[in-house]
Amino acid sequence: MLRPVSGAVRFVLGGKAAALAALFALLALAVSAPSASADQLGSECPATLRTTTGTALQISRVGAPVLTSQAGVVTSWAVNNPSFDGVTEKLKVFLPVGSELEVVAESLLQAIPKGGVSRFPVRIPVPAGVQFGAYDSVGVAECYNTFTADDKYGGYGGDTPVGSRHNGFNYVGEKSLIALAVTVEPDADGDGYGDETQDGCPTNAAVQGPCPTPAPPPSSGGSGGSSSGGGAPPAASLKIAGAKLEGNTVAVKLTSTAQAQVTVSGSVRGKPIAPAAQLAVTPGATGRAYLPLSKAMRERLAKLPRRQHLTLVVEATSSGAVPASLEVALPGRKKPARHHRHR
Ligand SMILES: [Ca+2]
């Protein structure tokens, strides 16, 4: 018996979507080039017919892909329905698994009124290689006739639930496009929010609003900032009270005028010497951060004569706070002329 290879990619809307989106984004990073723009799949062609089946999906189309090229987030779907009353559809997302189609996600059922394009904003993380279709208990809106036999859709009765698979079609229509247009935006940080319209900070999975910027100037009058959710914390002012090398670790003392989550980093000529340390600093108390020297830095110091030093710049930053920095001399450790070891 075959193991369900795609078991990991089934999810329900809103559930583990974010975590899986992160996985998908990683897969996408591994496979594709960086930062593409949104994928547009399907068509906003005006529907002229309805399929005889409940579920239908485009299986081939001349000059356009039917599969997503990259992982991302479906941010909207649209149906152009100039003519029909009583159209009620939901978007279905299919992942081909061998000869079967697994439904990996779906939208809510939506009424699509007669009279033009209806567009539905959604947030559905999808992996690369999925295809889109629709379910309507009466029949899915389609656009006939494209005069091209290779424009094909497959249809079958019923509605496959998310997490289940379907095999085979009851009907394959030619010269037709499913009247369904789907926008898939990239999701570089894998947070499950489309980077072009849903994610204000596509480089930080923890933030969907604007990216945090260090030290915005205190807004004194003017049009004012758009800090939502009243009572923004007062801007902190950071100070590095001291930093010194203890063994192979730089111990840093710092203070803040307001409660702050602080990142402390150390660099020599712009190159980090240790992973940044994070700590919470309470006003009135001294926070301590420790930066262990990297192996490369220890080796550099070992080769540097004792009377020389490297200048370490310790920097403390916090969202919305004025950053602080302090220079510390890291003395060389090479003893004067003993036996010279060759590597
Ligand atoms: Ca994102």
Characterization of the model:
The chain has 343 residues and is mainly beta. It has helices at residues 17-31, 295-303; strands at 39-42, 49-50, 55-60, 72-81, 87-97, 100-106, 110-112, 116-126, 131-135, 141-144, 152-156, 165-167, 171-173, 176-178, 181-185, 238-246, 249-256, 260-268, 271-272, 277-281, 287-292, 309-317, 324-331. The strands form five sheets. Strands 3, 5, 6, 7, 9, 11, 12 and 13 form an eight-stranded antiparallel beta sheet that branches. Strands 18, 19, 20, 22 and 23 form a five-stranded antiparallel beta sheet that branches. The protein is elongated, with a radius of gyration of 29 Å. Calcium ion binds at residues 187, 189, 191, 193, 195, 199, 202.
Query: Taking Cα atoms only, what radius of gyration do you get, to the nearest Å?
Result: 29 Å
Strand percentage lies at 35-45%
Query: How many distinct beta strands?
Result: 23
Structural class label? mainly beta
Report on the biggest sheet. Answer: 8 strands, antiparallel
Count of separate DSSP helical elements: 2
- The overall pLDDT average reads 84
Binned, the helix content reads under 10%
Would you kindly provide a brief summary of this structure?
With 343 residues, the chain is mainly β. The chain is built from 2 helices and 23 strands.
Walk me through the topology:
Blueprint: H1 17-31, E1 39-42, E2 49-50, E3 55-60, E4 72-81, E5 87-97, E6 100-106, E7 110-112, E8 116-126, E9 131-135, E10 141-144, E11 152-156, E12 165-167, E13 171-173, E14 176-178, E15 181-185, E16 238-246, E17 249-256, E18 260-268, E19 271-272, E20 277-281, E21 287-292, H2 295-303, E22 309-317, E23 324-331
Antiparallel strand pairs: 1-15, 2-10, 3-9, 3-11, 4-8, 4-15, 5-6, 5-7, 5-9, 6-12, 10-14, 11-13, 16-17, 17-21, 18-19, 18-20, 18-22, 22-23
The structure holds calcium ion.
